[in-house]
Amino acid sequence: MVIDEKIASEVGLEAAAVYSEMILILCTGMYREKFKGCRVKQVPNTVFVSIAKLKEIIPFMSTKKLYDAVNRLVSTGYIKEANYRLPGMNTTKCYQMVDR
Asked: Contact 7/78 with Cβ under 8 angstroms?
């Protein structure tokens, strides 16, 4: 895991660690098997990501810290929440990489 110091100073160390993994999830095929069927096919770098799946990848971080880190990344504009969920059908949030 590579953590960018600039990002860590802006969003905190935990959110920077999550961001490092989110880049791999959203932009590469590294976790292709773990997120099989979770990619939005028509939109690049867009994946349904549950906190439970993040917990499997980052087991040293508590569920609350993962929620807080992801929310901080969304609120600071490092990733965005994409609205591809069907109402009442799916509670997993969909995230998309943002060009910065």
From this structure: yes
